[in-house]
Design goal:
about 25% strand; binds magnesium ion; alpha/beta; binds adenosine-5'-triphosphate; 11 helices; six-stranded mixed beta sheet; Rossmann fold; about 280 residues; globular
């Protein structure tokens, strides 16, 4: 059974009598333990799509299944419970400014009624995992962007979710900090065996960390598959454009090592060759 299954999902927004189709007939599946990327230009519908996975956005048409459960069939209460299995991190970190680091990480546990001492012990474990033990009592305003995102990751993991949704988790960060956060996500993926869905507009994030990718363009899914295969032989204009955004060295010569390791490199007629 797939961890996430989206079937014929469409989402329309109506503003001032005008209807905008943000997502059109999207179907995709994410298997257990995958790191799955969703990439597209600004306004393509990526955030709307990821917010549909925890039903913060309710589909206009189609269904979303998480572990085989149709989220549309759940009551509000059941949905809140289900959401605990789905952690989420955001581009702007979304930390509570008036709470310190440990207070932020404990927050999702407190609202589910976990005892304070138990919540603190769990938060300290997570602080070790994200390498921020020394910042327990710092406030968000005293942290760098990378540190804030580490706190947000720890908070997202507090309820022991089996799925982690990352919406542009690194786009506010410089390249070096981006690399460090992606390495942390890889480590979490390995240690916890969690399924990760990453939304990004940067192809470099996809090639660095994802095994599978879906390309969204104008609310439609235009291409989906193994990262290595799409990189080697993109079929859509959107994929070609995204690949062309990569640094020339990677694009012209060879795919990143991480992609090569995961996929035996192929080259054949009509495919891009990397020598
Ligand atoms: N609540 C809303 N009401 C009306 N329109 C919306 C709403 N949310 C999103 N949209 C529209 O839906 C389209 C897709 O938006 P979305 O935020 O999903 O794009 P995105 O791919 O995440 O873009 P970005 O890369 O800039 O974050 C946009 O045209 C946006 O204006
Ligand atoms: Mg977005």
């Amino acid at each position: 059974m797939s961890v996430i299954e989206i079937r014929h999902l469409s989402k329309r927004f109506t503003v001032d009598g005008h209807t905008l189709e943000a997502l059109r007939d999207i179907s995709l599946t994410v298997e257990k333990g995958e790191i799955y990327g969703i990439i597209g230009m600004s306004g393509a519908g990526k955030s709307t799509l990821v917010r549909s996975v925890n039903y913060l956005e309710k589909p206009s048409d189609g269904i979303v299944l998480v572990d085989g459960v149709d989220l549309g069939s759940l009551t509000e209460r059941e949905l809140r419970k289900k959401r605990r299995e789905i952690g989420m991190i955001f581009q702007n970190f979304n930390l509570l400014e008036q709470r310190n680091v440990i207070g932020n990480i404990c927050f999702p546990l407190e609202i589910t009624g976990v005892k304070k001492k138990v919540a603190r012990d769990r938060a300290r474990e997570l602080l070790r995992l994200v390498n921020l033990e020394d910042k327990e009592t710092a406030y968000p305003s005293q942290l760098s962007g990378g540190q804030k995102q580490r706190v947000a990751i720890a908070r997202a993991l507090a309820t022991e979710p089996r799925i982690l949704l990352c919406d542009e988790a690194t786009s506010a960060l410089d390249p070096q900090t981006t690399k460090a956060i992606l390495d942390l996500l890889k480590e979490i993926h390995e240690k916890l065996g969690i399924t990760i869905l990453i939304i990004t507009h940067q192809m470099s994030v996809v090639t660095e960390i994802c095994q599978k990718v879906a390309i969204i363009d104008g609310g439609r899914l235009v291409e989906e598959g193994d990262v290595g295969e799409i990189f080697a032989s993109p079929r859509s204009d959107a994929a070609r454009e995204l690949i062309s955004s990569l640094p020339e060295g990677i694009r012209k010569n060879r795919p990143p090592e991480s992609v090569q390791k995961r996929y035996p490199w192929k080259s054949g007629p009509g495919e891009v060759k990397y020598e």
